[in-house]
Specification:
Blueprint: E1 18-19, E2 30-31, H1 37-54, H2 56-59, E3 74-78, E4 83-88, E5 91-94, E6 98-100, E7 105-107, H3 111-123, E8 134-136, E9 143-144, H4 153-168, E10 180-181, E11 186-187, E12 193-195, H5 201-209, E13 218-226, E14 231-238, E15 242-249, E16 257-264, E17 269-271, H6 273-280, H7 284-289, H8 298-310, H9 312-345
Parallel strand pairs: 7-8
Antiparallel strand pairs: 1-2, 3-4, 3-9, 4-5, 6-7, 10-11, 12-15, 13-14, 13-16, 14-15, 16-17
Helix pairs in contact: 1-4
């Protein structure tokens, strides 16, 4: 087995454990058969760190199983107060205290900070000295967390997942030439990345219903090689929301292959496609139509490419829908966890 980036033979002394799906995002698919230690370190610094930051607003608010747990917070903006807030340990608190005169409440990180702020406001005569003020250390409401795709890092991050999975499944490095510059030993800047768009009514229905699955959200991968069409692609889906097809080789001469992977993030377990499909819809007819997961032929790839180029508004609305679907679910999980914590305290 060779390192897909450098082409060097992987031996005991240069092997390295690579998370094919980033562990920061809750991914648990890992292998010592895809990257040498120097390549792993190089890609961690040049791609992984910035790629993972794109999804901080999502993964830091979900109870994900990770090898190394951190309690670092994520900063968002409270839309009502237009103030920065920090989400940490399933609580939201303002970076600096907020006084809501209507509710006669001060929101602060701690009771001590809140008490000090009340004293400060009374000293400044912004609160009558005799008035009672409630102090709250958890601020709910409409909070927007940053999400911005880096057009340089994002394609490389998706391609890195695809290259790792393809290598794990036995694909030779030479068949990754559309994502890796084999001479320079680095990911290319002209990666062909196609945003997924449902083509059939059945696919549309499935995508609308995925949030109902007991396995939602998932990370999923589908790798397909079509010898007669000379195409090798990998479909990568993160959090059941960010859906992209990356072309690994457009002059593929290998065997016909098809491999999939499904990971249930909140239950921290690998599942099958049938598990996933049955949890979304109880409909034999639809199940028969969607019997293969993201199984595309060349004309399907041409379809999504055409959508990206000529129907940008439709694609944008679909992406917004999927993102809001995820955001609503994350908010639901946050509230559910808070209620459980309150029950324990009673």
């Amino acid at each position: 087995m060779k390192c897909y980036l450098t082409g060097v033979e992987l031996k005991k002394e240069n092997k390295s454990l690579e998370h094919i799906l980033p562990n920061a995002l809750g991914g648990q698919l890992k292998s010592k058969k895809v990257l040498c230690s120097s390549a792993n370190l190089k890609l961690s610094n040049s791609i992984d760190t910035e790629f993972n930051k794109i999804f901080e607003g999502t993964y830091r608010r979900l109870p994900l199983d990770k090898d190394r747990q951190t309690n670092r917070g994520i900063v968002g903006v409270h839309q009502t107060y237009n103030e920065d807030v920090v989400f940490k340990d399933n609580k939201c608190f303002p970076r600096k205290p907020i006084y809501d005169a209507t509710k006669q409440t001060v929101y602060a990180q701690t009771e001590k900070i809140g008490t000090g702020y009340v004293k400060h406001l009374k000293k400044k005569e912004k609160i009558p000295k005799g008035q009672e003020v409630k102090i709250c250390t958890d601020l709910s409401g409409d909070i927007e967390f940053p999400f911005k795709i880096d057009n340089n890092i994002f394609p490389k991050g998706i391609a890195k997942i695809a290259a790792g999975f393809a290598t794990l499944k036995g694909i030779d490095r030479k068949n990754l030439k559309r994502v890796i510059d084999l001479t320079e030993e680095e990911f290319r800047n002209d990666i062909i990345l196609l945003p997924y768009f449902p083509e059939t009514p059945q696919e549309v229905f499935f995508e609308k219903e995925t949030y109902k699955s007991v396995h939602y959200p998932l990370h999923t991968i589908a790798l397909k090689g079509i010898k007669k069409e000379g195409i090798l692609y990998c479909y990568v889906e993160l959090f059941s929301t960010f859906q992209f097809i990356v072309v690994l080789d457009d002059k593929y001469e290998g065997k016909d292959i098809y491999h999939t992977y499904f990971y249930d993030l909140l239950n921290a377990q690998e599942i099958t496609y049938n598990d996933y499909l049955d949890s979304v819809m109880d409909n034999t007819t639809l199940n028969n139509v969607l019997k293969e997961y993201k199984y595309f032929e060349q004309y399907n790839l041409d379809y999504v490419a055409n959508i990206a180029m000529n129907k940008a508004d439709s694609l944008r609305l679909y992406c917004i829908y999927k993102f809001h679907q995820l955001e609503s679910f994350v908010a639901y999980i946050t509230i559910t966890l808070k209620l459980k914590e309150m029950e324990k305290e009673q």
